[in-house]
Prior knowledge:
It is built from 1 helix and no strands. The chain has 64 residues and is mainly α. The chain has a domain of 41 residues.
Amino acid sequence: xxxxxxxxxxxxxxxxxxxxxxxxxxxxxxxxxxxxxxxxxxxxxxxxxxxxxxxxxxxxxxxx
Length: 64
């Protein structure tokens, strides 16, 4: 039992890579797909940002 009842409890992860999905409903699977597509878009946007930064740095050092 927790020392204090109001201690922060860990939230369950919405999705974990490799977890068993056999018991999920069609609706839950669609929710997971939407969640993961959003995460892929976020990762691709960050990749684009980093690519621009890398290209700018490479251009700067090529001038030397």
